[in-house]
Amino acid sequence: MIVVLDTNIVASATFWRGKPAHCLEAWALGRFDLAISHPILTEYEEVIARLAARYPERPQTDWLSAIQQAGHLYLPAPLPPATADPDDEKFIECAATAQADYLVTGDKGHLLVLEQAAGIPIIAASDFLRLLGVPENPA
After folding, report:
1. Is pLDDT at 139 greater than 70 in this prediction?
2. With 0-12 CB in 10 A as exposed, 13-18 as middle and 19+ as buried, what is 51?
3. What is the band of 81 on the pLDDT scale with cuts at 50, 70, 90?
4. Which of 26, 31, 36, 136 pairs with 72 at a CA distance of 20 to 30 A?
């Protein structure tokens, strides 16, 4: 299974526990392949750096290094816009190029409302974890 993770999932997992972290843990355990692109990596880096400056006392899980090493890099082609937020297009384009099974996001305003784009289902972390059979509060 191939999945694209929106920045809000990766950034949240970097600083906090919860469903986004469980998504990354499932990836680390080989439950799915993570599709990334250069624009996605750049956004991950920028948002994580901003959060690190905002929460300097918070411990971090270095998901970014793991993603840079083990994520599957794609070079997506532009698609016609599917969302009102141009910054979200990179995730849809990567998902389409990778022929991803899912785009996982917490973005209720722009992505989740679409339900799908380019034939790729767009789902919340809780729904994705349910699909994987991960319990609500894994140990």
Report:
1. no
2. middle
3. confident
4. 136
In 47-130, DSSP assigns E strands to 72-73, 102-104, 116-117, 120-123
- Are 87 and 111 within 8 A, CB to CB? no
Domains of the chain: 2-132 (3.40.50.1010)
Residue 84 binned pLDDT confidence (cut-offs 50, 70, 90): confident
Q: How long, in residues, is the chain?
A: 139
pLDDT at residue 89 in the model = 96
* Residue 41 contacts residue 61 (beta carbons within 8 Å): no
Residue 138: the pLDDT is 63
Structure tokens at 111: 């992505």
In the chain, beta strands by DSSP E: 2-5, 33-36, 72-73, 102-104, 116-117, 120-123
User: Do residues 59 and 16 touch, judged by C-beta distance below 8 A?
Assistant: no
Tokens of 40: 């996605």
Q: Which pTM value belongs to this model?
A: 0.94
